[in-house]
Amino acid sequence: MIKKLLTVSISVALATGAGFVHAQGNASAGKAKAASCAGCHGEDGNSAMPGFPKLAGQHQGYLVKQLQAFKGGTRIAPMMAPLALGLEDADMQDIAAFYASNKISANPAPSLPVSDDDDDAPAKTDEQKKTELADLIAAGSDLYRNGNLASGVSACIACHGPHAEGNKPASYPNLHSQHADYLSKTLTDFKTAGRTKNPDNMMNMIAKKMSDKDIKAVSLYISTLK
Predict the structure, then answer these.
(1) 138 and 155 belong to one structural domain
(2) Is 83 exposed, middle or buried (0-12, 13-18, 19+ CB in 10 A)?
């Protein structure tokens, strides 16, 4: 019951305080304008590189807000800022409409990062790796759905929905089928305040309470959702 109340209270608080962005745009015009984005994000918004986010199927309002943040300097990203500076509001709406009109691709079955292997420890068997991965994903599922009362980590489901579909009216992003590497980097950036200049940002407050294992586990879990 306490977990449910925590989840509901956070969801209500965020929903009432969120800035609603009603994005409009021309997807056909956006396709042409997004041509220069294909190198990192894929022609249809499905990036093939795990370090770059998939944009296909993302909510228009969220994408517009991020482009505005890149342009305004409230979200620091050396690669994105120069590109966003040249965009007018109509360009942002069109590009966002294009990516939102496409379907995000499912990820292949996850695997443990190579960096998890300790050179000084005995090599893990395939069965051990399989068990470790399954345990991590299970832990990520529990954290996503229930949070962690002991550490004060809120349940992700409150804002991002049961299937990580996000919240379109509130411009909370769709996360399902996103690259685990990108999700992990994003949470780490929130944890270290590298993602925003605002220390009171909800994601910063949540992520700084997460352990590295929490971040890895929930990122892996979300990447498996479709």
Answers:
(1) yes
(2) middle
In a domain, 116, yes or no: no
pLDDT at 118 over 60: no
CB 177 within 8 A of CB 190: no
Q: Are residues 141 and 220 in the same domain?
A: yes
142 and 219 assigned to the same domain? yes
Within a domain: 177? yes
Do residues 219 and 133 both lie within one domain?
yes
DSSP string, 149-218: TTTTBPPTHHHH-TTS--BTTTTBPP-TT--HHHHHHHHHHHHTT-S-S-TT-HHHHHHTT--HHHHHHH
pLDDT (average), residues 2-12 = 41
Torsion, Cα 67 72 78 81, to 10 degrees, reads: 50
Report the candidate in 160, 138, 128, 157 with the shortest Cα–Cα distance to residue 214: 138
* pLDDT tens track for 121-167: 678 888 888 999 999 999 999 999 999 999 999 999 999 999 999 99
pLDDT of residue 207: 96
Q: Which domain range does residue 165 map to?
A: 2-18+125-224
Domain count for the chain: 2
Residue 21 has pLDDT above 50, yes or no: no
As given in the structure block, the two tokens for residue 35 are 């041509």
* Residue 127 exposed, middle or buried by CB count within 10 Å (0-12, 13-18, 19+): exposed
Kindly report the CATH number assigned to the domain that includes residue 79.
1.10.760.10
Report the C-alpha gap between 120 and 5 in whole angstroms.
45
